[in-house]
Amino acid sequence: MAGLFITLEGPDGMGKTTVLKQLLPLLAQKTAQPVIETREPGGSQIAEQIRQVLLDVNNTKMDDRTEALLFAAARRQHLVEVVLPALAADKIVLSDRFVDSSVAYQGGGREIGEQAVYDLNMFATAGLTPDLTLLLDGPVEAGLARIQKFRQDQSDRLDQETLAFHQRVRTSYLHLAAEFPKRVIKIDAMQPLEQVVADCLQQVQNHLPETFQRS
Questions:
Q1: Of 34, 109, 115, 144, which is most buried with the most CB atoms under 10 A?
Q2: 14 carries a ligand binding annotation
Q3: Which domain holds residue 30?
Q4: 136 φ/ψ angles, rounded to the nearest 5 degrees
Q5: pTM
Q6: Cβ(99)–Cβ(125) under 8 Å?
Q7: Known binder of ligand: residue 16?
Q8: Tens of pLDDT along 95-123?
Q9: Into how many domains does the chain fold?
């Protein structure tokens, strides 16, 4: 068996982390391969230290390109320490964010350029691409309202950006879905949580049928 790399993406407040936590055991029930979860930025000791710098609300002077480079650096370390060894051991890696996030947030949100950020991250990852990406999508206003309601005390530096920034992020995500329709599958994140999880599970089974048994 070969390892598989599945990522969850989407604008802030779409519920990626919650969905991932519920999706993980459901996937594990449907395959003999071990399923592990991880996240970006972070996922390993060094990458988590970089995460703290990136998301610190006090780092208001961070340059946009510095931000993009730090995300790529954290991603490289996470890849070397966690993702690649897991894939080599025939595990299924379920990750909360990967390269698409940088393309959307720094390429689109920061307006550095989607292609420039993509190229930077292709260097950082040596071209590794997920087998499947689940894009949790919905109006940015709804996502930001969820953050305000449920985790205002945990909001980070990017959460606190302007509405226009978050709208550019979503637009970039939709560009990625249009450019890579076989890999990036859009899921309506405005549905009840149970339905979002069910849709994600169904899409994984549909796109990777050789690995996940049909129920």
A1: 109
A2: yes
A3: 4-207
A4: -80, 115
A5: 0.94
A6: yes
A7: yes
A8: 999 999 999 999 999 999 999 999 999 99
A9: 1
109 appears as a binding residue in the annotation: no
What is the distance between the alpha carbons of residues 13 and 48, in angstroms, rounded to a whole number?
Answer: 21
Q: Would you say 13 is a known binding-site residue?
A: yes
Is 17 marked within a binding site?
A: yes
Query: Does residue 114 sit within a domain?
Result: yes
Report whether 42 belongs to an annotated binding site.
Answer: no
DSSP string, 41-55: S-SSHHHHHHHHHHH
Instruction: Supply the CATH number for residue 72's domain.
Output: 3.40.50.300
Residues contacting residue 39 through CB under 8 Å, at least 6 positions apart: 17, 95, 96, 97
70, 71, 150, 172, 215 from 167: Cα distances, Å: 23, 20, 21, 9, 38
Strand order across the 132-137 sheet: 35-39, 92-96, 4-9, 132-137, 184-188
